[in-house]
Write a structure and sequence with these properties.
Blueprint (H helix, E strand, L loop, with lengths): L2 E8 L5 H13 L1 H11 L1 E11 L2 E10 L2 H10 L3 H13 L21
Antiparallel strand pairs: 1-3, 2-3
Helix pairs in contact: 1-4, 2-3
InterPro entries: DUF6176
Organism: Halosimplex rubrum
Pfam family, one: DUF6176
Length: 113
């Protein structure tokens, strides 16, 4: 069974455009991004921008064989795109804390996947 995680982080209100520009760059550099996913053991990673009365939030959906391995590999990564990602997140996030409280009720995948 895979690990499925949602992470929610506060985005500085004046940094939304910078965040969107960086996420577009990640999409454009998908070969590099996919290489890091392979190294981490990440199966799926999706990023969303949530607009709330409390301000903007970056929300990640992640699916991995072992989420702890993902965290460790990301922390130790020497991929250029990961280093750049860490730098941009330092700029655009209020403090990087996970402010979401998500409880997984179920996770299904198609057997055809």
């Amino acid at each position: 069974m895979t690990d499925v995680v949602m992470v929610k982080q506060r985005v500085k209100g004046d940094e939304v455009d910078r965040l969107k520009a960086w996420m577009a760059e990640v999409r454009d550099r998908s070969d590099e991004a996919e290489e890091t996913l392979r190294d981490e053991g990440m199966l799926t990673e999706s990023a969303f921008l949530e607009h709330t009365d409390d301000g903007p939030h970056l929300v990640y959906y992640m699916e991995a064989e072992d989420i702890d391995r993902v965290w460790d590999q990301y922390a130790d990564s020497d991929h250029d795109i990961d280093e750049e990602h860490k730098a941009v997140m330092q700029e655009v996030l209020e403090d990087g804390r996970d402010v979401g409280e998500f409880e997984s009720l179920y996770h299904l995948t198609s057997p055809e996947r």
